């Protein structure tokens, strides 16, 4: 690895957009979206860091690290919480799983299976909801975009990201469970904002990404109905297009790559690329 080229970007005081990918429900497309948009932006020259918060370590895997716990040299978010290293020290270059090569402009703060103790560890901290707010200045100013891939619930880890981030990206599928998860998330945002709004956190969703819709109504009217309801409820916040059901997404998962890297021309990758443009992550 040419370390200089892939050294953590200097703090140049650039304006960083911190995007929190979240939903009250698991399996709503958070990780797929964070990795796909992160790679799309990095491949267009933006400096991007993805911060993984899930003990299942999916985004770490999509960014080239199948088993961060298997290599003692690799720092993880868990080490940051344990004060073994700082957050900036924990950002490592993302890798293309297929070639093993670092991916230009893309970094990742890796996850550990030990993050299953995160809630417990944070619970003992003073002003625990601010845990990430206090850490994030170590990364701000170095990147154009920081994407936080939340776990599938709205507990302390996610609440910390809601307060620390700049924009909240609600990820949903056109199904009842994930759409309800979005409502649950909004209730939580209102509650957290009442306590922490003075610190600059947003009072509501900034973007809604709808993943895994179906292509034609005969496959299930219920999907089309829920998609229409979500679009009506969120209006312009709900970015277009809906990311349709595409087998390349699970294939990319198996390959350990963001779908925008795995198959840039597939329907899902094209949709995510358009969504990133609509979110003004790149031109
Ligand atoms: N457009 C799509 N087409 C087909 N499958 C999809 C699509 N989007 C997501 N999936 C599948 O849905 C599952 C959940 O997606 P993903 O892991 O991104 O959700 P998540 O919100 O991060 O889940 P978790 O809460 O477990 O972290 C994955 O198996 C993924 O392959
Ligand atoms: Mg996930």
Describe the overall structure.
It is built from 12 helices and 8 strands. With 283 residues, it is α/β, with parallel strands linked by helices. The chain has one domain: Rossmann fold, CATH 3.40.50. Strand 6, helix 8 and strand 7 form a beta-alpha-beta unit. Helix 1 packs across helix 12. The mean pLDDT is 94. The structure holds adenosine-5'-triphosphate and magnesium ion. The site of magnesium ion has 5 residues, from helix 1.
The tally of helices reads: 12
Average pLDDT number? 94
What distance separates the N and C termini? 30 Å
Strand content: 15-25%
Number of strands: 8
Overall helicity: 25-40%
Q: What shape does the CA trace take? A: globular
Instruction: Give the name of the CATH architecture.
Output: 3-Layer(aba) Sandwich
CATH superfamily: P-loop containing nucleotide triphosphate hydrolases
Q: Spell out the helices and strands N to C.
A: EHEHHHEEHHEHEHEHEHHH
Strand order within the widest beta sheet: 3-4-2-5-1-6-7-8
What is the CA-atom radius of gyration, in angstroms?
Answer: 18 Å
Ligand identities: adenosine-5'-triphosphate, magnesium ion
CATH topology: Rossmann fold
CATH class: Alpha Beta
**What class do helices, strands and sheet pairing give?**
alpha/beta
List the helices and strands and how they pair.
Blueprint: E1 17-22, H1 30-43, E2 48-52, H2 58-62, H3 77-81, H4 87-90, E3 91-95, E4 102-109, H5 118-123, H6 131-135, E5 145-149, H7 156-164, E6 167-173, H8 176-196, E7 207-213, H9 221-234, E8 243-244, H10 248-255, H11 259-262, H12 267-278
Parallel strand pairs: 1-5, 1-6, 2-4, 2-5, 6-7, 7-8
Antiparallel strand pairs: 3-4
Helix pairs in contact: 1-12
The chain binds adenosine-5'-triphosphate and magnesium ion.
Adenosine-5'-triphosphate is lined by residues 26-32, 54, 58, 152, 171, 211-212, 243, 245-246, 249-250, 253, 268.
């Amino acid at each position: 690895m040419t370390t200089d080229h892939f050294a953590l970007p200097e703090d140049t005081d650039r304006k960083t957009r911190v995007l929190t990918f979240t939903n009250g429900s698991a399996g709503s497309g958070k990780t797929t979206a964070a990795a796909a948009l992160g790679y799309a932006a990095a491949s267009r020259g933006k400096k991007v860091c993805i911060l993984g918060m899930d003990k299942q370590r999916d985004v770490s895997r999509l960014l080239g690290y199948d088993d961060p716990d298997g290599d003692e040299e690799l720092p993880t978010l868990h080490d940051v919480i344990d004060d073994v290293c700082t957050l900036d020290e924990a950002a490592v270059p993302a890798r293309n799983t297929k070639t093993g090569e670092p991916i230009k402009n893309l970094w990742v703060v890796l996850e550990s299976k030990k993050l299953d103790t995160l809630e417990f560890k944070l619970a003992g901290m003073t002003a625990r909801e601010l845990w990430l707010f206090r850490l994030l200045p170590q990364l701000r100013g170095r990147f154009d975009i920081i994407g936080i891939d939340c776990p599938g619930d709205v507990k302390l880890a996610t609440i910390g990201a809601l307060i620390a981030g700049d924009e909240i990206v609600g990820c949903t599928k056109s199904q009842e469970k994930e759409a309800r998860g979005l409502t649950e998330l909004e209730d939580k945002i209102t509650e957290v904002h009442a306590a922490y709004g003075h610190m600059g956190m947003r009072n509501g969703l900034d973007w809604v990404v709808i993943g895994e819709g179906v292509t034609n109504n005969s496959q299930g009217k219920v999907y089309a109905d829920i998609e229409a309801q979500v679009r009506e409820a969120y209006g312009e916040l709900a970015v277009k297009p809906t990311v349709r059901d595409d087998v390349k997404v699970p294939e990319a998962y198996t390959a350990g790559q963001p779908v925008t890297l795995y198959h840039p021309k597939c329907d899902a990758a094209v949709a995510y690329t358009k969504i990133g443009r609509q979110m003004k992550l790149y031109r």
